[in-house]
Design goal:
heterodimer; A: alpha+beta; six-stranded antiparallel β-sheet; B: alpha/beta; 23% strand
Chain lengths: 578, 309
């Protein structure tokens, strides 16, 4: 094109004029004033926009539900005392009010009756956690000042009013106000002692037990290696006995400390009255938290809210998982996802490299590619079954036979564990990584590869220095998708190592510190367990939402970390500055 | 790849096949001869290359002997190509699209090996050593040449890393050497003044013309024996093209350059020798001055004056 040409006029490079018969044909056609609606494409804008809006609506709806229910769980509501027409009284939290479904043949004009669900607690006395009460039965509803909600280690919540406080056989305080003051004074010290005792039991006593168990196993190993009649076995056995005797004294010492703490705590009781007037003494050491819900100022409420969240995030579960915290589940979820990522990324990237860079493109490679893509559609439970059969029963059992034969017949690696769960999920997410990596590799311009070859680079040098860095952001996208998929997966985990309650974390202070063979807790499985396996499902329901919220937050957090890495790579290898 | 060649045993001279050039003065006779030549090519007959005496007598860095290239077994892209590249001179390849210029260029550093099903016959000799010999290490061979592509293809890394890439892959670690080579190459490519303060910046942030000069810097970094340029200016604007042409002019005397171009003005401005290709045949090669002012063959003149192609 010459420079003198005015802007806007274009000419094909060969300078040929358009064929003349075209304009002849156009001249014959009648011209319309307006392009038709479909030619405009306006409906497609609405259709595509509408689809997006619908998708957003569903996502936002889901998130709003989870957020509302999840964040609301721990907010301390008021306690209501309902006096009923039959003279009885009920104290508790109102959880919902709904219409009573009309009975068949009822007068349709009659105003709908309402009923109220009240969380009444006191399961040890009444045998129920929740009660439905017809609104018609309620005589009056009040919010008594001294009504206290008590979260206990056992039997769930207790609702009542303080009556007295006892230390030993002596009543140190009478009346609601004095009893509450006395409780507040002593609760913290008693709880401290209790926590110290449990801590010693768990860590110090646990360590002694671990050492003794390890000694026993090593003796058995010597026996298996050299025979149970051999002098080696006798020597090892004697050494172990000596060790055990040494530890016996330490064990007794620890036991004494624990017993002393427990004795000190004995006798601290708060006497509570239920709504019906029955007096119930409660051990102070068994009270996790007592909330005088109707006396709380807004600041106090936030305090309770925060302390409940704190417990949820940092404590271990109790009351068959429906109370307490989910720390082991958080730990298990994050650790399993990270181990999975460590396995799946190199594996998937190498496989994709071979498929895209080394393999001769042809029918066979296409078949492999289709097979890999289809692998993503296999039900995840099938991966779980495969993981159980292959990793646990074949690989794990072989490891046990070779290295941990002194433990047999009890399985060490030969059963579900965090390692096998991670490997199973690696297989599950492998197609995602392979497909994303292949696409990222395909998007690297051939001119860059040629430039590298022309400089005298070998294939591997080209891949390592040019192709992989350039494809890194795309590979990270695959990693992000794999994390999202893996962290939320539950079904296969149920058979390869996720358990309802894991006694020990996979990482602790006992050598070798990381125990990949251990079973673990997982938030996804925890949600299933809370929602569908819990005896107190009504009380567990809010926890389901809270746990869901937590799981989503963890997935988001992991993804944000991965996206951060990707944008760093993008900055480094993209068009921008380094 | 099939390389049915023999090692040269005696000093190589371009084959003086066919008759010495007969310069026909009569325009009508000339035209008839040209038409018959093109028709002969169309019929698939072999055509002799017209190589001017001064080119034949030059000191050749690279010599191409009876070179044939086939794509996928049957489609032949190059027919009996014979040419030599004079030392430290610029030689340009011209010809219409699809005539095999780029194929010939890419055959020099065996980039065509990367394409499945390419087969060659004949021989190329670089400084007395065979390029297509059976024991040639292609990677080491490519390190002896630099190549600049049609589209600038800087690597996704810093300017500095881009320039020293050939040394990096060769395992050079001495920082002082790398820095020196980087500066020297960038100066050779006339990019030093623009890039010296942003060596650590991504090369992809440069303009198109700068990117192409960076690619030239990269190509000359390893002191190549031959610099191959495949239409280096076709993706650039006239100003950037002018700079690259100046650059090629400066490289003359220190590098042996083979440049493919579509642009006949460019060939006439930048090169010392010009070779005209048509349909996979090398029709005529000689000093640029002669090719553009008094070509021996009518079809060369026809192409240069725009009568066909």
């Amino acid at each position: 094109m010459s420079i003198a040409e005015p802007p806007g006029t274009t000419r094909s490079s060969d300078g040929a004029a358009p064929p003349a018969n075209d304009s002849v044909r156009l001249r014959g056609r009648s011209r319309k004033r307006l392009t038709s609606l479909f030619a405009h494409g306006e409906p497609m804008v609405w259709l595509s926009g509408g689809s997006l809006v619908l998708a957003l609506f569903m996502i936002i709806g889901l998130m709003a539900l989870v957020l509302r229910m999840g964040f609301g769980t721990f907010w301390p509501g008021p306690l209501h005392e309902l006096k009923l027409h039959d003279g009885s009284a009920v104290l508790g939290e109102v959880t919902r009010v709904q219409e009573i479904p009309a009975a068949e043949g009822a007068d349709p004009d009659e105003a709908a009756k309402l009923r109220t669900e009240v969380r009444v607690g006191n399961f040890d006395i009444t045998g129920v956690h929740f009660r439905w009460i017809d609104n018609a039965e309620i005589l009056e509803a009040t919010t008594p000042e001294f009504a206290v909600l008590i979260e206990r280690l056992e039997w769930g919540r207790f609702y009542g009013t303080p009556v007295a406080f006892e230390i030993g056989d002596e009543r140190v305080a009478e009346g609601a106000e004095a009893a509450w003051a006395a409780f507040e004074e002593h609760h913290e010290t008693v709880r401290d002692r209790w926590e110290r005792a449990r801590d010693i039991e768990k860590h110090d006593v646990g360590k002694v037990n671990h050492t003794l168990e390890a000694a026993r196993l090593s003796v058995r190993r010597v026996g298996l290696d050299h025979g149970f009649e051999s002098p080696e076995y006798r020597a090892a056995s004697a050494a172990a006995d000596e060790l055990a005797q040494g530890y016996e004294a330490e064990y007794a010492e620890l036991r004494a400390i624990v017993d002393d703490l427990d004795t000190q705590n004995e006798g601290y009781r708060i006497v509570m009255a239920t709504a019906d007037g029955e007096e119930v003494p409660l051990d102070v050491e068994g009270i996790v938290r007592a909330v005088p819900a109707n006396m709380l100022t807004t600041v106090d409420k936030w305090g309770v809210y925060g302390s409940r969240w704190g417990e949820f995030l940092t404590a271990e579960p109790r009351e068959s998982n429906s109370e307490g915290g989910v720390l082991p589940a958080i730990f298990g979820t994050v650790m399993m996802t990270l181990i999975m990522t460590i396995f799946v990324v190199p594996f998937g990237v190498l496989a994709a490299l071979y498929l895209r860079e080394y393999a001769k493109q042809g029918v066979l490679v296409s078949i492999v590619r289709i097979a890999v893509n289809n692998l993503a559609g296999v039900p995840s439970i099938v991966f779980g079954v495969f993981g159980l059969g292959f990793f646990c029963y074949i690989v794990g059992a072989r490891i046990d036979e070779l290295f941990y034969y002194e433990r047999l017949p009890s399985a060490h690696f030969g059963t579900g564990g965090i390692m096998w769960a991670s490997l199973t999920l690696s297989l599950l997410t492998l197609p995602v990584v392979i497909v994303a990596t292949e696409e990222a590799l395909a998007a690297v311009p051939n001119s860059m590869r040629e430039g590298s070859y022309a400089c005298g680079a070998s294939k591997w040098q080209t891949i390592r220095r040019i192709v992989l860095p350039r494809a890194a952001p795309g590979i990270m996208t695959g990693v992000i998708l794999a994390i999202a998929r893996g962290a939320g997966e539950v079904a296969p985990l149920m058979i390869v190592g996720a358990v309802k309650l894991a006694p020990e974390l996979p990482v602790d202070g006992v050598a070798p510190f990381v125990h990949l063979e251990r079973s673990f807790m997982h938030l996804g499985f925890h949600i299933y367990d809370l929602g569908f396996q819990s005896q107190n499902s009504e009380a567990a329901k809010p926890m389901v939402f809270t746990t869901t919220l937590l799981l989503i937050s963890i997935v988001v957090l992991l993804n944000v970390a991965a996206i951060g890495v990707r944008s760093r790579l993008n900055r480094r290898f993209g068009t921008g500055r380094i | 790849m099939d390389t049915s060649t023999t090692k040269p045993t005696k000093p190589f001279t371009l084959p003086a096949r066919g008759q010495p050039p007969v310069i026909i003065d009569d325009p009508i006779q000339r035209r008839a001869a040209a038409d018959s030549l093109l028709e002969a090519i169309d019929r698939g007959e072999r055509v002799e290359t017209e190589i001017h005496k001064s080119l034949r007598a030059a000191d050749h860095v690279l010599e191409v002997r009876d070179f044939n290239l086939f794509y996928g077994g049957t489609a032949q892209a190059l027919f009996d190509v014979n040419i030599g590249l004079p030392r430290h001179q610029v030689t340009s390849l011209i010809g219409p699209s699809g005539c095999g210029k780029s194929t010939l260029l890419r055959s020099v550093n065996r980039m065509n090996d990367l394409i499945d099903g390419v087969r060659t016959e004949g021989e190329m000799i670089l400084e007395g050593e065979s390029i297509y010999g059976p024991s040639v290490d292609v990677i080491e061979l490519r390190k002896r040449m630099g190549m600049v592509f049609q589209k600038p293809n800087p690597f996704p890394m810093s300017i500095y890393e881009n320039v020293i890439y050939p040394l990096r892959i060769d395992g050079e670690r001495d920082k002082a050497v790398l820095a020196e080579v980087c500066e020297k190459s960038l100066r050779h490519a006339a990019l030093w003044d623009e890039a010296k303060d942003r060596l650590k910046d991504s090369a992809l942030g440069l303009s198109g013309g700068q990117q192409q000069r960076l690619c030239i810097a990269r190509a000359v970094a390893a002191e190549p024996e031959v610099l191959l340029m495949d239409e280096p200016c076709s993706a650039l604007d006239p100003i950037a093209t002018g700079r690259i042409e100046e650059l090629i002019d400066e490289l003359r005397g220190s590098y042996t350059v083979l440049i493919v171009t579509h642009n006949m003005q460019q060939a006439s401005r930048t090169s010392d020798f010009t070779a005209f290709m048509y349909r996979g045949y090398l029709i005529e090669a000689g000093p640029t001055q002669d090719i553009f002012t008094s070509p021996h063959r009518q079809e060369t003149e026809d192409y240069i004056t725009g009568r066909f192609g």
